[in-house]
């Protein structure tokens, strides 16, 4: 991923995006490019990703011991050139994203079941203690999936939020996103405030 230095997320910020936006695109390229859309869970120490896919999905058959790319997309939205203080200007798309490269190990037995339970607990704590997912039912269905871990080799994070532009342009984009009725605009603006990027506030305060 092309990341100019000013747009780079640090390791902690990249890991935070993965935790908030766990639905990923998992790409492999052994014997042809394959891709699956699925949630991936980041370990507490940020060294591994865990996930599973349907056993009927042929992608898993080429994964064990192989390198993969996982792409996590954060908030994103269209940016109108009319929001900038001065022209000429062109439209663009602002976004946050993280790419992870690593090597896959297929998991079996208790390790696979533990990983699956951690995934369920991540999204709906307490579900396993209810009647919807009794232990024997989960064990029976687990035969239809393949569980895996990815040993992380590299994490790259990017926040293209207009922080490289002049303060008045940043403030114009902030106002444009605030006025927009698109849900993507609201999500992107919330991300800008969370990261304190592209708002033009620091520069304005120092003038």
UniProtKB/TrEMBL annotation:
Q: Sorted alphabetically, which keywords does the UniProt record give?
A: Hydrolase, Protease
* Transmembrane feature ranges: none
**InterPro entries of this UniProt entry?**
Split_barrel_FMN-bd, TR_PAI2-type
Superkingdom as given in the UniProt entry: Bacteria
Q: What GO molecular function annotations does the UniProt record carry, in alphabetical order?
A: peptidase activity
Q: Which GO terms describe its biological process?
A: proteolysis
Q: Which SUPFAM superfamilies match?
A: FMN-binding split barrel
Gene3D superfamilies in the record:
Electron Transport, Fmn-binding Protein, Chain A
Q: What is this protein called?
A: Protease synthase and sporulation protein PAI 2
**What organism is recorded for this protein?**
Shewanella khirikhana
């Amino acid at each position: 991923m092309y990341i100019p230095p000013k747009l780079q997320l640090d390791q902690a910020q990249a890991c935070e995006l993965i935790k908030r936006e766990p639905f990923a695109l998992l790409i492999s390229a052994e014997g042809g490019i394959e891709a699956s859309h699925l949630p991936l869970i980041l370990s507490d120490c940020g060294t591994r990703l865990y996930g599973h896919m349907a056993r009927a999905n042929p992608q898993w058959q080429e994964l064990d011991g192989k390198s993969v790319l996982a792409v996590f997309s954060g908030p994103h939205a269209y940016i109108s050139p009319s929001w900038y203080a001065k022209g000429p200007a062109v439209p663009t798309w602002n976004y946050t994203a993280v790419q992870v490269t690593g090597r896959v190990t297929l998991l079996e037995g208790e390790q696979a079941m533990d990983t699956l339970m951690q995934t369920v607990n991540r999204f709906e704590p307490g579900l396993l203690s209810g009647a919807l997912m009794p232990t024997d039912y989960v064990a029976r269905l687990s035969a239809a999936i393949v569980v895996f871990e990815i040993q992380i080799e590299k994490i790259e994070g990017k926040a293209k939020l207009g922080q490289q532009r002049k303060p008045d342009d940043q403030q114009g984009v902030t106002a444009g996103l605030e006025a927009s009725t698109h849900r993507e605009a609201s999500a992107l603006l919330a991300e800008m405030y969370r990261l304190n990027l592209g708002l033009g506030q620091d520069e304005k305060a120092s003038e």
